[in-house]
Amino acid sequence: MDNIVNKIVKDTACSVSTLGQNIKLLRKRRGRTQDDIAHALEMKRSTLSGYENGVAEPGIEALLALAKYFKISVDTLITVDLGTLRESELYQLEHGYDIFVNGGNLRVLTTTVDSSNKENIEVVNQKASAGYRTGFADPEYIRVLPTFQMPFLSPDRKYRTFQISGDSMLPIPDKSWVTGEFVQNWDLVRDHQAYIILTLNDGIMFKVVENRLKTEGRFLLHSLNPLYESYPVDLKDLREVWRFVHYISSELPEPNLPANQMAGALAALQNEVAGIKKQIEKQGKLFDDV
After folding, report:
1. Is residue 4 in some structural domain?
2. What is the CATH number of the domain that holds 207?
3. For residue range 18-77, what is the model confidence (pLDDT) as tens digits?
4. Nearest of 102, 89, 124 to residue 204 by alpha carbon
5. Among the four residues 88, 123, 142, 213, which has the most C-beta atoms within 10 Å?
6. Which residues contact 12 (CB under 8 A, 6 or more apart)?
7. Which domain holds residue 263?
8. Residue 148: CB partners within 8 Å, gap ≥ 6?
């Protein structure tokens, strides 16, 4: 059985203006009383009550304990008004993925290792991709994914393989298996390179990325297939980024015709159109003569 590992893959601290409201919200969503939390964190109930009511401010040790208990960063706990979040965003927070860690900060990646403590390459097929959108940070979900090893890949980096669908990245065929290397610092995403992107709304996407995080707070995603338009994805909707490494497919990509063949094909098409035009004109003349 593969083992689950949570990789710490920077938290900062600011004001505590919303801390009390956040503690109360998270406590109630867990169905816990103040006595329950205070007992778990080995503090007085009156101390926790003071934090929730905003009449006391916790020290760094208490902050770290609260953040660890609720499985979110200290930064998020004291700076983000959790009461304004959508249910899906709260779900992500409560399941170990802090959606407010910015592009340059570290994050937690749920992964698996084999019996020799070597990291696996988990496989997310098309059937599993829908569940991956919400289960990517869930150890139980990751645990049941198929795994394999690729000896030619670096043992010091984390990889995962996804099965793509559709024709937006042609000539890479539909249903190809695309392997990506986990990117922990999104600020380092390179323009015009291919990445597997996980977003809250659209799930898994394989696209060419234009990094606009520092200027606009978003990625601009492009397809290789020119029939598809580019579109932006905001930082708050991003969940994971994997740099494209290689793909596996049972189909050969469509060949690109050399320039002389393309010219010949165009000439043949023009002749065919001219022939059709002559037939239409001839038929029209026959109708005129009737």
Report:
1. no
2. 2.10.109.10
3. 889 999 999 999 999 999 999 999 999 999 999 998 888 888 888 889 988 988 878 788
4. 124
5. 142
6. 74, 75, 105
7. 259-290
8. 120, 121, 123, 161
Count of residues making up the chain:
290
* DSSP summary character for residue 148: E
How many whole angstroms separate alpha carbon 21 and alpha carbon 92? 19
In the three-class reduction of DSSP (H, G, I as helix; E, B as strand; rest coil), residue 6 is classed as strand
Same domain, 174 and 273: no
142 shares its domain with 67: no
Residue 118, domain member (yes or no): yes
> Which tens digits make up the pLDDT trace of 202-242?
999 999 999 998 888 899 999 999 999 999 999 888 889 99
Q: Is residue 101 part of a domain?
A: no
Contact 109, 183 (CB under 8 A): no
Residue 65 phi, psi (nearest 5) = -65, -45
- pTM as predicted: 0.60
What SS3 state is found at 208?
Answer: strand
Same domain, 84 and 145: no
The total of structural domains in the chain comes to 3
